[in-house]
Write a structure and sequence with these properties.
Layout lengths: L1 H11 L2 H11 L3 E2 H8 L3 H13 L3 E6 L2 E6 L1 H12 L2 H6 L1 H17 L13 H11 L8 E3 H9 L5 H10 L3 E4 L2 E4 L12
Antiparallel strand pairs: 1-3, 2-3, 4-6, 5-6
Helix pairs in contact: 3-4, 7-8, 9-10
Length: 194
Amino acid sequence: MTETLLEFFKAMADASRLKIVGLLAGGERSVQDLARALGLKEPTVSHHLAILKAQGLVTARAEGTTRWHALDRTALERLTKRVLQPASEKSARQAPRRAEDFDAKVLRNFVTADGTLKQIPAARKKRGAVLRWLMRDFEPGRRYSEAEVNEAIQTHHWDSATLRRELIGHRMLARKDRVYWRLPEAEWKMGGEA
């Protein structure tokens, strides 16, 4: 828990990132919108967004050639609950926390501060954690072209073909006629189990 908070506060310890969170609290924005509003260059805004995405605070969706970014209010609520939850409730929820703690540890080892995946983990359980993290970029109920899936993955790692196949193999994404969609989490093969 302490490490989670430390990473969160490190991500938020920047005036530009705080302003981005404030702007996204009002609704979706593109990199171009944020750059204009903040008086920053687009690559700088993209860098800040990658850090916020690595912490799970920002989601992105592609619409044509534009990527729209939004504040993940659910992630903020989860963090608040974890911080403010009484100790008695925390012990009752120990098993789900262990899974979250495992994912957080894996992501600290495999994802850089700017949201780039250093390498694809060889261990299936660790790879499952990375795949769950990648799925934050895909909205339930939305259909994606193969190019859109590749673009979303390539913001984190160059090998979109391997990661796309892994997402399908872990039943996180489904595909038919080169159209992809997110499957319900209940169907996901969480750690690469058979």
